[in-house]
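input
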Amino acid sequence: MSEQQWTIAATEQPPEWFIQAVKQHTPLSSGIYAAQLLWKRGIKDNQQLTAFINYKAYQPASPFEFGQEMHLAIARLQQAYNAKEKIAIWGDFDADGITATSVLWDGLGQFFKQNTQLIYYIPNRLKESHGLNNQGIDNLANQGCKLIVTCDTGSTNIEEIIYAKQLGIDVIVTDHHTLPTERPPVAAIINPRYFSREHQLFNLSGVAVAYKLVEALYQTLPNIAKYPLEDLLDLVAVGLIADLVQLSGDCRYLAQLGIQRLQADFQQPPAARRRPGVGRLLELCQKSGDRPTDISFGLGPRINAVSRIQGDASFCVELLTSRDVKRCHELAEVTELANTRRKSLQKDVQAQVAQKLTQLDLSTTSVIVLEDAQWPAGVLGLVAGQIAQETGRPTILLSTEGLGTGDWELGTGEEFSQSPIPNPQSLARGSARSVNSVDLYQLVKDQAHLLHRFGGHPFAAGLSLLVENIPLFTAAINQQLRQSLGSTTLTPTVQADLTVTVADLGKELFLELKVLEPCGMGNPVPKLLIQNCWFENAWHRNQQDWQGKKVQYIKTEFDIRDDSGRSAFPGLWWGHYKDELPIGRCDCIAELDYNTFKKRYEIRLIAVRPSVDSALNTRNGLNAPLSLTPLILDLRNQKYSEQATQDGLNAPLTALTLKDCPTSWDNLRLWLRRCLMTSRSASKLDDRQQLAIAWSKPNHQPPNQIWLTLVGIAKYLSRTNQPVTRAQLLEKIGISDQTLLVGIKALKSLGFTVKRQDNDLQFAWHPSDRAENLADEAVTKFLAAVREEQFQQQYFADVPLSTIMAIANSDNYMGANL
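output
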């Protein structure tokens, strides 16, 4: 992966009156940091400030700001109410769509009897696409529906709306996606895209638009509803924050109110909660519902996981709206299992994508386009987002497996469709994610002639195309972006908002920055730069998921220190090993958080690099460490030759060459120290030992295949009675000695005996009744060891040279001062 580019946001000192105004809301601290951020984010007068922080001072827009369209919608609903017509809610399968459906189910359910007059329909993600479809409309017509109310979808489904009208079904569209070129033949269309960008309703998500429709109905028929409108706000907050819309105007106001409702309900005993399903989900993800991150990292991914894994997410509406505690707990557990499965699939696909990336030259690649027949389409958008962030390049991942009629994983905007493809098996479909302000939707749209369907927005898109068009599409979209970028280089970028010290971290700063919440698009979580710091007591572990559904992922915990005080501060780094933390002085970018499970304040590490001002090279001038910069030559992933190494140095040095990709820092340190010892004993510069790191990116076999190979070799050796050395086994199977030991234990569980004779191993097989399957506990441990080793090798294939230098300089310094 490319090394990150760090940028520090320019901070303009706000006037003193503004700092004092902010301090009124942060009595425990000076308010200076919050004032700087608010000023930079466009909050520059008292009225704005008060409305931003205190929802009670904000004046929300009336639902009738939507004008004639809202009046038409309410009139059509009143007609249905008076005529006792049957209504169907048509939702979407992501978190915004599910919560929008739930809001209409609970809200309209105050006026129309649920399950008889009011039903809902959510397309199957793996069999249908986003939006209306004729088959589903036929289904509703057969049930006697006379009105469809969409939520989070429908704006561009012109043909389907006409089809419904032909069957005698009117359609009210509530949506927030791209508008059609002409008004569709609907009873009403309520979409905030008709407003100007500056309007306080412009950024509403699907669930918020649905809420505004229910709000208008409550105001029109004030004496009918049994439950207060405010009971819907927790669902509105979940959908708003999970959908990553800009939290400004009414979006921020509704999210603030909703989070309060969410937290208040969670604090009730389980049997007394209005939404026991939401409460149980929060318990399962160890959240309390009082932070936006509880939704973005907890509830949102779990709701989204259901359709990604199972296709049909209809039961999620029951999960969010039912008062039956037992039933809700059952559905919450099904949702948690789906999320566990999603994590496993996402991890597997990410590993496969990382392997394919090794075959790309990123220096000549502007848009990453990768395909595979085995990738499940439901997780491609998530993995594409991760790869885009890591590489700094727009990423498109395509699955060429045939999965029914659903043509894309994300279709959140204008749709394009060519003539129907007669054979779905010939289609590739997938998801795209962007970074660096590249308008991905426009990039994809400009290649419409090569596509079957697509939809999306500037940072995310979904698409389908003929498999044979993929090479042409890849070349065209790369050429297009290269031309538009000119000499600009795409690199992964992380920006810090504030510079703080370790002494600044803690409750006071947390509460000060909390006035910015809820954070989201346009108002991101503050990123804190901590300079010239170091880490202590670092350790990592494999986290395991829930109820035996094992998905291992890494989390490193540590203490951070700097020269600002004597106390350390705790933190964690998701998805990283402790050995990835630089040894010695470094700079890091982090977010300050409160861990409700551990009841402590901590930082969440975002990025880290060795400090430019590292004291390791200058401390008191004592035995200054030997500079390693000219002594380590990075020849990874290049065709290596001894002569090339010496030519590259322009000096008669004999390089110490490391061709095997290491699996741990300890393994690499042995070579570094060997190089250092030789260099320190050198009498002159030209005699210093150079270390050439010359390994290539590993080409890993799947762990299952490695296990089958090991079993096959063991059977062959047993049958032929041939001895084998461990070195021969390691070379044949391509694993480390430590992992081989785990494999031998697994073989023993299947009835093999292994005897050592001098340097040889002798295998004998006495078949047991135990099946040779991958579910065996000992085999599972071997597969896990192989995955761990492959993960480590993948890391060392791309670990930045600066990180290796930091480790080497640290060891060098320690050795110099012993």
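quick obs: The two ends are 36 Å apart (CA to CA).
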